[in-house]
Specification:
Number of helices of chain A: 14
CATH class of chain A: Mainly Alpha
Largest sheet of chain A: 2 strands, antiparallel
Oligomer: heterodimer
Strand order of the largest sheet of chain B: 1-2
Largest interface: A-B, 43 and 47 residues
Number of strands of chain B: 6
Largest sheet of chain B: 2 strands, antiparallel
Helix content of chain B: 55-70%
Number of domains of chain A: 1
Strand content of chain A: under 5%
Radius of gyration of chain A: 20 Å
Shape of chain B: globular
Helix content of chain A: over 70%
Structural class of chain B: mainly alpha
CATH topology of chain A: ABC transporter involved in vitamin B12 uptake, BtuC
Strand content of chain B: 5-15%
Structural class of chain A: mainly alpha
Shape of chain A: globular
Distance between the termini of chain A: 16 Å
Order of helices and strands of chain A: HHHHHHEHEEHHHHEHHH
Order of helices and strands of chain B: HHEEHHHHEHEEHHHHEHHHH
Chain lengths: ~325, ~350
């Protein structure tokens, strides 16, 4: 078995184990809708985490995604208030998100700046722009948004998905295709493995590096659109700290933070594990919400130690 | 002049002075310092006082960054230390209306600092022994730490009614805020240790090239471990100052985003994020820049919403100034100005 698939296998096993634990422990846990709700409630996180996977695969990090989501919800709400067509406003925020990401990528690539600092400043900037638009929450009363928010897509067994969840699944599929079957994907893996060797191999390193941040910005904006379907409001304090959840999902999904190793499919399971922890705690009813943080921290520790173990072994084997 | 411009502290000092000049131009009373109620009083004193926790955290962060590390858990450690101290001091009214501390004050403070140092040691162990990337190793405590603090407080804000504890964040000694004394003392101790012993050299060596330092006989793992422990301890001190200042411990919000401000202060001060080159004095100035910016925005009557945008613009500017690639580009454009060329 491919050793690089092991962390992904562990993640999937862990998810199944948690599901079995929940099914034995709590009545009504083992219903299709409970599992679909994992995806519905975390759709925006899933979309963002796919973008983050590419950034981390390239060896970088993007701290601005949570703020970009908030800015997206704010701009969407403001544009709708100004009487824009809902689809035009969606297209507008997606373009803006991609541009925001590309600008960060340009700074990182062209001036060899640390991704951590650039995207940190990007985070301040995006949150700051939210406050400039409004410090209050803006409600979205648009009919199109409301109907999309309420739309349910039946999938059989009395269960259904929301539009946001379907978008999230499509993004995961597209992400897998881009990562594993495109020149861009191969270049991203190569950059994560070693940037100078990727350059020596003649790969388009510069454009791919800007590309991953563009993709991450686009995914953040798309996640923001999905969030507006979910929340039906724009607010500057939406998605505070979401970047950490996204990074945690990527790491738990088996992607190496050093870059170069990982799978987009793993990220989906990372998101689902974060979701199932919250669901388990909600089903229990006696545990408080802060247990979520502690369990997520413990899982992060487990996976990082696991990764170190595999790395150590493969180095010895090589 | 050229040598002055090349000094490590030139740009940080210039930025700070510029900010202060802007303040003084818009509000001539801004720079005034008066003696009022037995202590110094004025905007400058206020800036120094409010910047003290950030200075303390940033000093720890400077050393961590100097050994090629990063500690994003300091905000969570602040929350943990504040919670431990508040819980141990407690706020029970005993008979007769006297407020008693549950444990002696010194024991509460020492325990809080001990827990904070243990948090730092934990980070250090993950980095040194488990070989994790610093940002991941400290991410674990950043996520779990706040959860642990909330677990300790049961999600409540813990108010401290024991007056002697307020001294740390609100008191004055010889007319100067106690918090500032603490920051100054910490700086003095660090400065002495780093310049009078070989430790500073070792830290620079580890940051410059960890492998070469190890081969040269520097005990890099032990030193790195100490540096992370110190960073945790510094975050604990800041946590005590912050909780004393607001007379309570809020596990959810104490020290929120402090890690980012600390990293920002370190960068603004001229410490290289790639490790090796660090300046503690620069970090202090960096922390002052951040606080001056905040105070300036409030005192000028600018809506506080703009604060973050200005902060972002400043970070971008400083970042580009520090980038050799950007400076080369500017020089090239300045020498060979072509219309339309960027």
């Amino acid at each position: 078995m491919n050793r690089r698939l092991l962390p992904l296998g562990v993640t999937m096993l862990l998810f199944v184990g948690m599901a079995v634990f929940g099914a034995i422990r709590y009545d009504g846990f083992l219903s299709p809708q409970v599992f679909l709700n994992l995806l519905i409630d975390n759709a925006f996180l899933c979309v963002v985490a796919v973008g983050m996977t590419f950034v981390i695969l390239s060896g970088g990090i993007d701290l601005s995604v949570g703020a970009v989501i908030a800015l997206t919800t704010m701009i969407s709400a403001a544009l709708l208030e100004a009487g824009w067509n809902p689809y035009a406003s969606m297209a507008m925020v997606l373009v803006l998100g991609a541009l925001f990401g590309a600008a960060q990528g340009f700074l990182i690539q062209r001036f060899a700046l640390a991704p951590f600092i650039v995207t940190l400043a990007g985070m301040f900037l995006a949150r700051g722009c939210c406050y400039l638009i409004s410090t209050e929450s803006i409600a979205i009363n648009d009919a199109t948004y409301a109907s999309i928010a309420q739309a349910r897509i039946p999938v059989g067994f009395d269960a259904s998905l929301t539009v946001g969840a379907v978008i999230a699944l499509l993004v995961v599929l597209a992400g897998m295709r881009i990562a594993h079957a495109s020149e861009f994907g191969r270049t991203v893996y190569a950059i994560g493995g070693g940037e100078s060797s990727a350059r020596l191999m003649g790969l388009p390193v510069a454009s791919a590096k800007i590309g991953v941040y563009l993709l991450s910005g686009f995914c953040a904006a798309l996640g923001g659109v999905v969030m507006t379907f979910y929340m039906l409001s724009g607010y500057s304090l939406h998605a505070v700290g979401l970047e950490l959840d996204a990074i945690a999902a990527v790491v738990i999904g088996g992607t190496l933070l050093a870059g170069g190793v990982g799978y987009v499919a793993g990220t989906l399971f990372g998101v689902l594990i974060l979701g199932i922890i919250q669901t388990l705690i909600a089903f229990d009813g006696t545990l408080s919400s802060w247990w979520t943080k502690i369990v997520v921290g413990a899982l992060l520790l487990l996976f990082c130690l696991l990764q170190r173990l595999f790395e150590g072994r493969s180095r010895k084997a090589a | 002049m050229k040598r002055l411009a090349q000094h490590a502290l030139f740009w940080p000092c210039t930025t700070l002075l510029l900010l202060l000049v802007v303040c003084a131009v818009f509000n001539p009373a801004f720079l005034g310092v008066a003696w009022q109620g037995g202590h110094l009083y004025g905007n400058l004193v206020d800036i120094l006082n409010r910047a003290a926790p950030l200075m303390v955290v940033s000093m720890g962060m400077t050393l961590v960054i100097a050994v090629r590390g990063l500690d994003i858990s300091v905000g969570a450690v602040v929350a943990i230390a504040a919670t431990v101290a508040a819980l141990m001091i407690g706020g029970s009214f005993s008979a007769g209306g006297e407020v008693a501390s549950r444990f002696p004050l010194w024991l509460a403070l020492a325990t809080a600092l001990g827990v904070a140092a243990a948090c730092g040691l934990w980070n250090g162990l993950l980095v040194v022994k488990a070989g994790m990337q610093p940002i991941v190793a400290t991410l674990i405590l950043m996520v779990a730490g706040r959860g642990i603090a909330q677990l300790l407080t049961g999600g409540q804000i813990i108010t401290v009614y024991y007056a002697p504890f307020y001294t740390l964040g609100n008191g004055f000694l010889l007319g100067v805020p106690v918090a500032l004394w603490i920051a100054a003392a910490l700086w003095a101790v660090l400065h002495l240790v780093l310049s009078r012993s070989a430790l500073g050299l070792f830290i620079r060596a580890i940051g410059g090239n960890p492998e070469a330092a190890r081969v040269a006989g520097v005990r890099s793992s032990a030193i790195t471990l100490c540096v992370y422990t110190f960073c945790g301890l510094a975050a604990g001190v800041a946590g005590l100052i912050i909780s004393s200042n607001v007379k309570s411990a809020d596990a959810n919000n104490a020290g929120q985003l402090l890690e980012l401000d600390a990293i920002l202060a370190v960068t603004l001060g001229g410490t290289a994020l790639t490790g090796g080159r660090f300046t503690l004095a620069g970090t202090i100035i960096g922390a002052l820049i951040i606080q001056t910016l905040t105070s300036m925005i409030y005192s000028l009557g600018v809506p506080p919403e703009v604060n973050l945008v200005v902060k972002a613009a400043l970070v971008f500017a400083v970042m580009l100034l520090q980038s050799a690639g950007f400076r080369a580009l500017v020089m090239r454009v300045a020498r060979n100005p072509r219309p339309g060329a960027t």
